[in-house]
Amino acid sequence: MSITITGVTSENTIQTIKSYHLNSIGFDLRPKSFNFIQEHKIKSILTQFKGLNVSLLFENDKDFVINHFYQDLKSLSHQFYVEFTGQEKVAELEKLNIPYFWHYHSEEKISSLASTKNLKKIILTHSVLREFQQTGELFGFLQLFADINSKIKFELLLDWDTEIMLSMFEYFEFHGIQFEINSKVERSYQNVNQTLLSDQLSYYLHLFKKEEE
To answer: In this structure, are residues 200 and 16 in contact, taking their beta carbons and an 8 Å threshold?
Structure first.
């Protein structure tokens, strides 16, 4: 099970992530986010590493803003994607002609996802799935994605203290899980507790390794 960490703001955090042979990270370009990072700092950080899978997080931004950051950063020696966390419609995102990740929201018709060409990953939030589970609709909801599960990767967004519904992994294939840096793994604002982060990564890697056995 792969793990992606978004909200990265320092070299130390990437070093901790890479120590577990993980290489998928995300930089937050949403101005109102606590993890917001400026472009020049992203460049400074990434020049110290090679071969990362990097997503750039946006939320309801203008096309020219997204294109600016993507075109400016993709020359670095990493694989870049854009990741959308707002209410964006996939039909509009396809027009960007950029490989992208998309966070599920109920305003989008699931049937429209099959015709996408640039959508590489769908992120489902655990708290949303929990709501479906509580109403007895979880299995039916996940089955709506069955036809595209082999074409598009699925990732589960968790918080660090989520009580995970492990049973759903028995009937739906998630290709990875995602965590966002927040106060639960920080000493202070944008100051990650690397020891705690390391402990959390170790715990979840061990947990999902057991599930896969």
So the answer is: no
